[in-house]
Amino acid sequence: MIKPTILRWGNLTPIRKVRRIIIHHPAAVRYSYLQIHNQHRNQGWSGAGYNYYLQKNHEFYELRGLNVGAHAANHNSDSLGVCVEGNYDREQMDETLFLKFVQEVKKLMNQHGLTANDVYRHSDVGQTSCPGRNFPWARFKQLIAQREEVKSIVHEPKQKEVMYVKAEDFQWSSGKEQFEAVINRHGNKNELDAYKAGKLTVSDALGVLSKGILAEPSQTVASTHKDAWEDLTKRGIFNGKNPNHPITRAQQATVIKRIEEGN
């Protein structure tokens, strides 16, 4: 649960569209959200640069929320900076804190329609070790990719394995070249990197295919509709292109007008 805060802010700008989450630590073993806010205010910023902050008391605080943060230079406009208290270059993260962090990040992913491939470390986009060399990144990515709630992953002895589409040894019956063409055109950097590393989950692979289908509907006309499509194309009602694209009301009005004019 996100806990609101009452803080004084400078000018803030709403995020138009959240496209990714960037994970941080403050590099301090003990550092409250209020200390962060005051530090960043003293630096001349509008306030705490993170959007959300999980403290070691397990409270998950809203800082900038859905306003543009100041947490990763040149990567703030479309991202949420989510920070967990601690210095994970020096210490190991407590297990219960780690699982709480996984839960909160998964909630944000679901809220904004993101996948595990849309979640980055600060070090992925900047010259830093953040969120720390000891941050359990591989396990974190595995857990946020799971569809099950973290509670079931933790407490059930038998865990479902994450399925991966591996570039090297995935048992393709057919379609590998077609899939790679789709992911090269429509996959984001994280999806491409994950595929090349053999770490693209099946669910994310299906997401890539969905993006490809929406962007490039099939040009094949089913036999049931083929005669009508060809007839109306010859008559000039349709232009013969993109038979499986959706039609807008404006386009429908043009079609109706052509029919009424006897084309």
Cα-based radius of gyration, to the nearest Å: 24 Å
Number of strands: 8
Major beta sheet, strand line-up: 1-4-3-5-2-6
Please give the largest β-sheet: 6 strands, mixed
State the distance separating the first and last CA atoms: 61 Å
Shape: elongated
- Structural class given helices, strands, pairing? alpha/beta
CATH superfamily of the largest domain: Peptidoglycan recognition protein-like
| Mean pLDDT figure | 84
CATH topology of the largest domain: Lysozyme-like
CATH secondary-structure class of the largest domain: Alpha Beta
Number of domains: 3
- Taking pLDDT < 50 over at least 5 consecutive residues as the criterion, the unreliable ranges are 148-169
Set down the secondary structure blueprint.
Layout: E1 2-3, E2 20-24, H1 33-42, E3 52-54, E4 60-62, E5 79-84, H2 95-112, E6 119-121, H3 122-125, H4 137-145, H5 150-155, E7 164-165, H6 176-186, H7 189-196, E8 200-201, H8 202-215, H9 223-234, H10 249-260
Parallel strand pairs: 1-4, 2-5, 2-6, 3-5
Antiparallel strand pairs: 3-4, 7-8
Helix pairs in contact: 2-4, 6-8
Domain Peptidoglycan recognition protein family: 4-126
Domain N-acetylmuramoyl-L-alanine amidase: 9-132
Protein name: N-acetylmuramoyl-L-alanine amidase CwlA
Structure description:
With 263 residues, the protein is an alpha/beta fold. It has 3 domains: 2-155, Peptidoglycan recognition protein-like (Lysozyme-like); 164-215, no CATH class; 223-260, no CATH class. It is 40% helix and 10% strand. It has 10 helices and 8 strands. The chain has helices at 33-42, 95-112, 122-125, 137-145, 150-155, 176-186, 189-196, 202-215, 223-234, 249-260, and strands at 2-3, 20-24, 52-54, 60-62, 79-84, 119-121, 164-165, 200-201. The strands form 2 sheets. Strands 1-4-3-5-2-6 form a 6-stranded mixed sheet. A two-stranded antiparallel sheet has the order 7-8. The protein is elongated. Mean pLDDT is 84; it is low at 148-169. Residues 9-132 form the N-acetylmuramoyl-L-alanine amidase domain. InterPro entries: Amidase/PGRP_sf (IPR036505), Amidase_domain (IPR002502), PGRP (IPR015510), PGRP_domain_met/bac (IPR006619). It holds the Pfam family Amidase_2.
